[in-house]
Amino acid sequence: MFLPHDADVRESTSNMTRREFLEEFGLYVEVLEKLPISEGIHNARLILNQTWFDTEKCVDGIRCLDNYRREWDDRR
Fold first, then answer.
1. CA pair distance 24, 13, nearest whole angstrom
2. CA distance linking residue 60 with residue 50, whole number of Å
3. What's the rounded Cα separation, in Å, for the pair 57 and 60?
4. Where in the chain are the domains?
5. Is the CB of residue 29 less than 8 Å from the CB of residue 3?
6. Cβ contacts of residue 32 below 8 Å, gap of 6+?
7. For 30-53, what is each residue's pLDDT tens digit?
8. Cys staple from 3: which of 7, 41, 50, 55, with CB 3.0 to 4.6 Å?
9. Is 3 helix (H, G, I), strand (E, B) or coil?
């Protein structure tokens, strides 16, 4: 299981990290390094081209992805 860079932050309620919590359930966990936002967006675009979604089981997630839009601003 791959986790974001901040998965080793200790939670105040349990005094455990997310990594420790998942490892207690026997899961292999790898915490990823922090990347610049632009690199993360680029990587997501690369992997989305190779991704298949089950249209019945993922209907809510697909609807959310379809609604993700941003207006283009030529000045920025």
1. 17
2. 20
3. 8
4. 2-67
5. yes
6. 2, 3, 4, 5
7. 999 999 999 988 988 899 889 888
8. 7
9. strand
